[in-house]
């Protein structure tokens, strides 16, 4: 047991001496990416999932690729020197095609919402106003006219007869005017409803803005399907050549 301990001690000491005589040269780099939180970043063959990191790398040139859907691909390189610390910063930007698409889609949605939601609300308000006129002013004038007619039939003096007759004619005139207003409002509601149908047909013909990615980015994505023997089913996945 003592002999084995001595051999282990000698081996560890010899290894430490060799490492001290031949230290591996390394360099340090601080890699920062602005404009996006945790983008898809690949340093040589290693995948990074951060936008601010400090790495220890071997001296030389290393390839950096940064990409995210709708963003412009960054394909660059960094140069690392032994026993030195360097800083590299990259700013990711959205593709111009995506910026134009987002602007066009925002306008499309704004126009669509005005067309599809403003007209029904206006139709409902118009119908509601017509129903209110029918239930309140028209009904009130109708009851007032009936009351004046009833009082007129029971009046004894000529003065009361003339007064109740005048009231009856006044209430009847107001009743007729409110009914005309009610019919006019319902007619306006009908016109608005027909116009809403026209708007629906027109909106149906408006093309929806579509964002088309660059062919160079789409060509980086492959679709794979493979069997899983343990689970006895098929698995599929997307692989990006990145």
List the helices and strands and how they pair.
Elements: H1 2-21, E1 27-34, E2 40-43, E3 46-48, E4 52-57, E5 60-67, E6 74-80, E7 85-91, H2 96-135, H3 137-154, H4 158-204, H5 215-218, E8 221-228, E9 233-240
Write up what this structure looks like:
- There is one protein chain.
- The chain is α+β, with helices and mostly antiparallel strands and 242 residues long.
- The protein folds into 2 domains: 29-94, Carboxypeptidase-like, regulatory domain (Immunoglobulin-like); 97-204.
- Helices cover 53% and strands 24% of the residues.
- The chain contains 5 helices and 9 strands; from the N terminus they run αβββββββααααββ.
- It has helices at residues 2-21, 96-135, 137-154, 158-204, 215-218; strands at 27-34, 40-43, 46-48, 52-57, 60-67, 74-80, 85-91, 221-228, 233-240.
- A hairpin with a 4-residue loop joins strand 8 (221-228) and strand 9.
- The longest helix is centred in the last third of the chain and has 47 residues, at 158-204.
- The chain starts with a helix and ends with a strand.
